[in-house]
Specification:
Number of strands: 15
Distance between the termini: 28 Å
CATH superfamily of the largest domain: D-amino Acid Aminotransferase, subunit A, domain 2
Structural class: alpha+beta
Order of helices and strands: EEHEEHHEEHEHEEEEHEHEEEH
Amino acid sequence: MAQTLVNGQDLTNLDISDRGLLYGDGFFTTIRVRDGKAEHWLLHAERIRLSAEKLHFPELDIDQIKADIEQLIAKQKNDGAIRLTITRGSGVRGYKPPANPDISRIVSWSNISSDKLSAVETGVALALCDTHDSYNPALAGVKHLNRLPQVLASNEIPDECFDGIMLVGQHIIGGSKTNIYFYQDGLWLTPEMDSAGVDGTVRRWLLSTQRNVKATKFGLEVLHDAQYCMVSNALYGMIPVTKIMQHRYDISPDIATLQQQYRDSALIE
């Protein structure tokens, strides 16, 4: 059973001169697959376009990318997850991008345990990472291939914690693998993405559909001030947070409703 497609072909290797490998010159998105369909495809397609534009890639063929994804999904028997990686392909060595890059489309499959998905519904704990995310407004919001801050931060997260909070300077930017939200004074507050961080698809859905979700700047004081907390990513949707170090949080009654709305809209195009 094919688990990886490279430019639409069943392959498990990549040219060693690929710029994604040499320089991290590319980006990726993770897509949950349910009932043989990619969840929230339109949000992911928008992310692909915006990432390509921000990294000065040529215009990408979204229909071809979708066809690759559907080709791999058709070979699977269960629900799971797709990782779509786009790189600038191979070329002459050196940082300067080629004028006419030969884009690489890498689509890989992972199974997801239903027990793993349901285990987080009763709430998770978060750590606070010493490693900060990298300040770079030019890359802010993009899920680019340069993830070394997250790699280092993940090594600090205890096994009993689902994720770890990362800062940029004095401001919270998110988790190492999630976006984060704190409920305070009737609003769900989530960090702005103007200097760092990943603008996840669940975050974009919440900001576009929920009036009480607001992007703003805040520091660690919110850990004390917030009534509720949750994190999100494309595999899990929204996850209640019940503990961050010494801080304890009840589970917001909003989360189950938001999760159901997100799930109900997942396969609508």
